[in-house]
Amino acid sequence: MADTPKYVTDIVRAGLDARYRREARFRRMGLAAIIMGLIFLSMLFISIIGNGYSAFWQTYIQIEVHLDASAIDPDGTRDPQVIEAADYGGLVKQSLRDMFPDVTERREKRTLYGIVSSGARYDLEDFVTANPDQIGNTIQLWVQADDDVDMLVKGHFDRDKDQSERRIKDNQIAWIDKLEAEGRLESRFNKVFFTAGDSREPELAGIWGAVSGSFFTLIVTLSLAFPMGVATAVYLEEFAPQNRWTDLIEVNINNLAAVPSIVFGLLGLAVFINFMGMPRSAPLVGGLVLTLMTLPTIIIASRAALKSVPPSIREAALGVGASKMQMVFHHVLPLAMPGMLTGTIIGMAQALGESAPLLMIGMVAFIVDSPGSVMDPSTVLPVQIYLWADSPERAFVERTSAAIMVLLAFLITMNALAVLLRKKFERRW
User: Fold this and answer.
1) Tens digits of residue pLDDT in 265-305
2) CB-based contact 350:294 (threshold 8 Å)
């Protein structure tokens, strides 16, 4: 009998040792899961940045153009309409022929013309329109290089491969080397990527049209989803009676938060476009669809914020004579507003990254011009990324990754803003 306590102690110690070992294994598994997640996330960011950072730089070629007065303004009237109607593409081609006089064959000339962007004629037109006094002179003009030349300069094409296995020819490489030796080739910050709309030519394609479409779409979404979501949360949490109907509404709101986003796109296509006749590809329709998608998130976050306000606040307000409406709007709602704003920002970040519901309502169309209002045809940044990812040119792969970097920057900024708001206005009771 004297050995019994010692035997029990040994059992307890053995059980404790086994429990500590299990806890240590669980901690190691959790740490390994975190490390693996960070590794995969790092691989994702490295891949995106590695493919996309070079899109922020563009190769430019300096050409020497004689602004022939007989071709631009034969009457010398300096009429803007006459100047705009001139054949600037022909002047660019003549400039390239003058720079490479040994190119005489027709096929070689076409290949030579391909080293500069098709937008070079518009650059020359803009220069002459802004400087009509230069007509008749010879100028030095920097124009964008073709996307294949840009890829070669950035090292994305292997020069050692046979020319049948790459998009750029041997004679073009020779001309590019000559231009580089003469100091007529340089890389500049690619402001076109941030200021232009979409284009069939990679070197002329930009994200401004998609960013504008995303902005108008999010404005519509925020204008509708925030007041509706907050009002719904306040009613359900503070005023609605507890019965089977409110329980049913709460269950449906929670279920809607888990519905795939493409279902909301089908709903928008059926209701807003087919039934109500709203315009396709418009930010107004996109905002309405994203409002339906983000409402459950905002309602759930707003209700959680209202529940976090201590009951003593409500009781104190009612105790000093405030009505229930005054209690809610003067005391409870201001204290819950930071949490509501946090949930709203997270919902907006979710809406910013969505593409599936917008594909269903036609925002996948090829849109060159930037929208000026919520009724103009447009696309959004995630859909623009989807369109570029489907393009075969190597330069579009670069721009796809760069657009993803811009989208991630917006998403990180919005999530960081939500965290800062929560930290700044959070109150501990």
Assistant:
1) 999 999 999 999 888 889 999 999 999 999 999 999 999 99
2) yes
Tell me which of 171, 196, 221 is where a domain ends: 196
Q: With contact defined as beta carbons under 8 Å apart, do 226 and 299 qualify?
A: no
- If asked whether residues 69 and 215 sit together in one domain, one would say no
d(CA 368, CA 384) in angstroms, rounded, equals: 11
**Ranges of the chain with pLDDT below 70:** 1-7, 426-429
Residue 63 inside a domain? The answer is yes
> Does residue 348 form part of some domain?
yes
Please report, as a single letter, which amino acid is at residue 331. H
pLDDT (0 to 100) of residue 382: 92
Q: Which residue has the tokens 């996307």?
A: 147
74 and 181 part of one domain? yes
Pair (61, 45) in one structural domain: no
Provide the domain count of the chain: 3
Residue with tokens 């064959």: 105
Residue 186, phi then psi, degrees to nearest 5: -155, 160
Q: Is residue 189 part of a domain?
A: yes
Quote the pTM value.
Answer: 0.85
- Residue 401: strand, helix, or coil: helix
CB atoms within 10 A of CB 13: 10
Cβ burial, residue 345 (10 Å; 0-12/13-18/19+): buried
Residue 427's pLDDT is what?
Answer: 65
